[in-house]
Amino acid sequence: MKNLTKKWLFTSLLFSSQLFAQVDVPTIAQQLPQGTSLGFVAKNLQTNQIVVQHHASTFMLPASTQKVFTALAAKLTLGDQFQFETSLLTNGKVQNNSLNGDLIVKFTGDPDLTSGQLYNLLAELKKQNIQHITGNLILDTSVFASHDRGIGWIWNDLTMCFNAPPAAANIDNNCFYVELDANQNVGENVKFNVPSQYPIQVFGQVQVVSKEEAGFCQIDAVVNDNNRYQIKGCIARQSKPFGLSFAVQDPSAYAVAIIQRQLNRLGIQFKGNIQFPRQPQKGTLLAQHFSKPLPDLLKKMMKKSDNQIADAIFRTVAYRYYQRPASFNLGAMALKNILAKQANIKFGNSIVADGSGLSRHNLIAPESMLQALEYIAKNEDKLHLLETFPIAGVDGTISGRGSLIQAPLVKNVIAKTGSLKGVYNLAGFITNARGEKIAFVQFINGYSTGELENKTKRAPLVQFESQIYNKIYQE
After folding, report:
1. Comparison of pLDDT for 381 and 158, the residue scoring more
2. What is the pTM assigned to this prediction?
3. Given 87, 98, 291, 305, the catalytic residue
4. Does 64 qualify as catalytic in the annotation?
């Protein structure tokens, strides 16, 4: 009987080993450029078997796959009814067409708030026959604390809109654009046109150069106080004007300037001071605006990989969890505690620096991300998160991913992407040929094709992904 048991165990282990070895990751990984680091794990959620495992415990940059953690923590903490609120309060009274007291504008980090929505909110004052504000304008941004950017964000990306600060006061994604007219003679300066709705200043010297010189040119933005931008560099002549987008650097000053302009546009007089208290303000509610509910925000965050939604939710989760103003550091503590306690995700020595994945300080192992995917799949009846993942060949950030747009992968892979310089990650699910759901995590770091980058940058990646996911499908 013991021999039969040993024989059965040996045969079982041999069979499992053969099944495991059918996806030959090292051979497929030879498609990737030399020097690339790869962490990969895939698990059949029906059979509960690991079907692929390659450096699954190695810490790597998760990039925007980090948003999977953020989405799960938000669902577990905030709930589907959650909405960001922007409100107008006062510590005074409305009498004789005047607001006799301060106007308190309370921002809570709504990442989808537009200047038009803010105008409509302020227009509620007009409907209450308010024509004068006798007190001060108080900006309450007390829900968030410390810096409005995560540690490890790249300094030279800070003027880019995908790096715009996800502050408590967030209007039009804290992003604006400037129109450049480079249809000038060689040696002359480009002309700048700042749309009137943006309370910022742009100046500088960008010179038009010949086509031969253009290859040595770049345009740089230097940020000064009070949302003033200096644009420097050179560019080849352009026949048509074009726009460049920039991130707002001082969100509170930007919000105040917009509020003052909108009050003036509404014919509401204000001559008081501007105040930025650290403590939360209380008062009588005059008007309020609510964002879309959490499920809508998460869908946009996951499908479009929206960084501002991710980091606004990241700190809001911490604010709700700890009941105190939330920094990025507090956000990291909250996320790890929530997911460890409620989803049994083992982070070990992982580093979480933000909710978007922008930070180069983030370090996550593929197996930790796999645990999040497993929890999501097993609790989908309550979470409804699978519908937020981009669908290969259909929508979101993998709608045109070259490796996934052919059958049987197209429409059959749903995955969150994660991309930074040298980083190409995926975390999601594929249904195999037998109809079984496979959760997988692909972390590719240190990816570079060197001098051939402009011509062949994606080709090795497409070949690798096409081969490995087709192989997983067949298994």
Report:
1. 381
2. 0.92
3. 305
4. yes
